[in-house]
Hints:
Elements: H1 3-8, E1 13-18, H2 34-42, E2 48-51, H3 63-72, E3 77-82, H4 88-100, E4 105-109, H5 130-141, E5 158-163, H6 170-183, E6 187-190, H7 196-206, E7 213-218, H8 223-232, H9 240-247, H10 254-269, E8 275-279, H11 287-296
Parallel strand pairs: 1-2, 1-8, 2-3, 3-4, 4-5, 5-6, 6-7, 7-8
Helix pairs in contact: 4-5, 5-6, 10-11
Amino acid sequence: xxxxELFRKGVFVFTGEVGPVKxxxxxxxxxxxxxxxxxxxxxxxxxAVNVADNQSALMRLGSLAASVLLKQAGxxxxxxxxxxxxxxxxxxxxxxxxxxxxIDNVLCLTGDHIRLGxxxxxxxxxxxxxxxxxxxxRGLNEGRDMMGNPLTQPTDLALxxxxxxxxxxxxxxxxxxxxxxxxxxxxxQTQAVFDPVIFESFIKKAERFxxxxxxxxxxxxxxxxxxxxxxxxxGITVPRxxxxxxxxxxxxxxxxxxxxxxxxxxxxxxxxxxxxxxxxLGWSDLIPPVVTELRKAGLA
Length: 300
């Protein structure tokens, strides 16, 4: 089901995220790969699951093939498509392929730079950026390719995009968000943000676009992870209070502490948005209790 249909019905939408494996996934009757099992375990608590596209420029199973595996397992996928590895021909072909294979939701991204990944000598493509990709995808939905040539049948995809509430200066991020809406973005998932004051300021300014926004919640597992994010990931800041709380518990207690923090943040952010996107980094088992608690509290 398209997320846009859920938003239109007033449903508070939950989504998760998985990363495909580094290898072939032909099971030959054996158990499904870990990322499929992870998605299946939360499918009763989320409406869809993002499938990362060679996230951080680390080579993995393709997001389209992984999305099809989720679909076959009864999980609604959100096909992430980045501009880093494909030119405009390949991007359009993959969008048509996704629609043909029964994928309803696409998240259009520029993609992390090659230098962050495990193939640093690869040649990045970046033929277009995420704004242009949204324009291309909207055109395919309207029955024409990028050059204006007609399609035998238009695609029928719900188009999503990302926005970073913690980016400074925020006005530049809002300008890019506006361009994405103009070019076809129908919903947004935010990058991770941990400060309700910063998030509220962003939401008040973004409301004028009239597009559903999902709060992006990154589950921070350890003080080391928090410090790595602050030192290496631009536009995302893990606050000192969160790091201190994780430092105050032994390693075996950090998952419980992460659950507590996640509940606290989602309860503060939920009234401002139309949904929550969880980035659990393997801790998807924290999603069910959070979703259950939010629903019990009448926040979703």
